[in-house]
TrEMBL record:
Belongs to the claudin family. GO terms for molecular function: structural molecule activity. It is a multi-pass membrane protein. The lineage of its organism: Eukaryota, Metazoa, Chordata, Craniata, Vertebrata. This is Claudin. It comes from Culter alburnus (Topmouth culter). The chain crosses the membrane at residues 6-24, 78-98.
Amino acid sequence: MALQLFGYIMSITGLCGLIVGTFTNEWKIIGHENDQTVTRDEYEGLWMECEIRSSSVAICKYYNSLLHQTYEIQLARVMMIISIVFASLAALVAISGLRCSRCLEENEKSKDRTAFAGGILFVCGGEFNPDLKNHYETRARSEIYFLVLSNRLITIDCV
């Protein structure tokens, strides 16, 4: 019973982290300027772009349209929302299958199957998130490598 409860608490913690990760604005760092007097950071999220100036004031601007974004942002939104839906459904299903709950008390076999189904739904919800993160990181790395390579080629060409 303690192991089931621990697993359920960890799953709910993962769901909360998923929700926070979906709505955070720091999915991609667009730019960073650091003069002697002004520091400015720009971040891109799934729902808005934010700029943080040296006065530590964040100025955020929501995207004008949900459909006029790059396919990466649209894909990320869909995958994260599907993941949240699966994990939320899993939380509702799994709680009725826990040994410490009073749901389905009369039949232990159906209680075990319900807990197992909730676990499978949590796994399905979690499978959407890592693939998306890896895709987003790979895309950002390829942009950085392209910029570094093009700068080296320009430097070699000038010498």
